[in-house]
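thread: overnight batch results

M.L. [08:02]
morning all. the overnight job finished for the chain we discussed friday. pasting input first so we're all looking at the same thing
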Amino acid sequence: MTEKGYDAIVVGSGPNGLAAAIRLRREGLSVLLIEGLDTAGGGARTAEITLPGFRHDICSAVHPLAVLSPFFKHLPLDRHGLEWVYPEISAAHPFDDGTAAALRPSLAQTADSLGSDKNCYLSLMSALTERLHDLLPDLLGPFPSFRHPLQLARFASDALLPASRIAKRFRTEAGKGLWGGVAAHALQPLGNPITSAIAMILMSASHAGGWPFPKGGAQRIPQALLSYYKSIGGEFRNNCYVRSFIDLPHARAVLFDVTPRQLLEIMGDRLPQLYRRRLQRYRYGMGVFKIDWALSEPAPFTAPECRLAGTVHLGPTFGEIARGELLTSRGKIVDKPFVIFSQPTIADRTRAPAGGHVGWAYCHVPHGSGADMTEAIENQVARFAPGFRDTILARHTFSANELESYNPNYVGGDINGGIQDIFQHFSRPVLSISPYRTPAKGIYICSSSTPPGGGVHGMCGYHAAGRALQDLF
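M.L. [08:03]
and the structure it wrote out:
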């Protein structure tokens, strides 16, 4: 690499790395953004991995937090090629009797569809949905700033509870199942405290902004961010995999969009021994097994709601989901796993050739598992969409181990940058009043292993850049 010096270097061009680079550059700093692969993206990438013309999202596909991100929404990303498309239904949750519960953009319509659980749902979601835009800067920050103390306290009274506790408030299997399917995005047992927070934020996001797809694929998000970054004078260098700190040019600040394991490998003994030990104790969660399909037609779901939903949660009951997630967290393979199924071509026909469609699904597996879950996942899809296998033209799979090989930040297949339970929610990567700053001067971490954690929102990078600006500039 060149010996030219910079004010700041950002290593890794996922959404968080891009957010950090953009914030630093907007303050007038000279910034170099480094990416190991040929394109920017991190977990937001799109590629033809089955058949020509079928564009699949490698990891993230649906982006409720991106469209609401307090950082992203103030950038002119529409001028840089980012366009959102919205399915009619955000998420559907089918049952064996052919019915399905539906998370709709409208809070009232979602509540009305739940029958006797209408008031329970409104009680849980109304206040948060109404104030979500005000609360998100706090909820997506390192620590609550208490600008809205009463609203935060009301949210916390439910959010800190296990999802299994909230599920007991619902009377119907439809209400319980819909709640459980969204809560299972937490990637941990539903009996864990704080799992309700994940469900509440994602459900309210549906009502406040929808669960959209980027038109053309998830890659359009980092492409737009990178285009904007370059337009304000930022420098980008791809195909430069950083294995050691000595590989980097001189800079006053270096921000790493990596998890603790990669930071330890890159920095070595440049980090104090005590801090290294703390990073070594950082915990990663369950992995995922993922399938991408090229399809001849949309998945033939029995329930009509599922044919209109961008995301389909395949459980079906809360009890079945909760048991599966608990067993998986204990290292066991589940025959009927909870499956998250995404079908972007119902809203975005640019993803496949004329007449074709793409599908995407994953289930949770034990950390670091090499198990092949293809049959188990396709059985769950066919359970609610008879004839699904007849629509498959080609498939591509990623085991948990293969996902880590593709993206080293997915340690053991953990796509969340580390388990986000109550013990590690506020201590990512270590318990500190400044979690982004390391003890080594000028060295910061800005990945999803810092608050507020996983999701395509860029707020980890935004806050890390803010810390570096306060410390050094």
